[in-house]
């Protein structure tokens, strides 16, 4: 399988899951502004939406949209616990969190902060939307190690990416000790640490 990614973009969550679950993938780096794939080709020819994560499976079929890619990867390795079994309450909690991170954090805050379609007022409004959402996430993590169930799941991979990027773009997550502890807990996992170091090095290139 090939995972089309861009360093430190939301595709980091899928990369983390591959490392956590020992799923062999070839990482294909994409320059998002031009959609060029390192080594040749355009992401548009693989995913007409031109977005990462994009997963090309061994049969050539392509899966897109972070929450579906994350669940697909997690389901490849059920024993990893990264994606709880269908039908369990834990699975619906994971889906609930994936949706929250995707819509309320990723798109509501980051997308509006960075899209050229936003003027300064829209960018400021997006940034201002972060603290209330951080309060909510911090409260949800009070007394628990991870978002859903007892272990690290694909939802944590997605939230970890968002929190990591948030700090890099001046959103202060350190006001919540619980979030700092959560970030360190996640970063200390071998798969998370390896994916983050790899992409940080790629981003610095
Ligand atoms: N709806 C997609 C959006 C993913 C997304 O926003 N990816 C960003 C990187 S974090 C991207 O590829 N942006 C480039 C673009 O949309 O032109 C998903 O949930 O996977």
Description:
It is globular and about 45 Å long. Helix content is 52%, strand content 9%. A five-stranded mixed beta sheet has the order 3-2-1-4-5. Strand 1 (2-5), helix 1 and strand 2 (26-31) form a beta-alpha-beta unit. The chain contains eight helices and five strands; from the N terminus they run βαββββααααααα. The protein has 205 residues and is of the alpha+beta class. It has helices at 12-20, 66-76, 89-114, 120-128, 130-141, 154-168, 177-187, 190-203, and strands at 2-5, 26-31, 36-37, 54-56, 62-64. The chain folds into two domains: 2-81 and 192-203, Glutaredoxin (3-Layer(aba) Sandwich), CATH 3.40.30.10; 89-189, Glutathione S-transferase Yfyf (Class Pi), Chain A, domain 2 (Up-down Bundle). Helix 1 packs across helix 6 (154-168) and helix 1 runs antiparallel to helix 8 (190-203). The structure holds glutathione. Residues 9-10, 32, 50-53, 65-66, 102 line the site of glutathione.
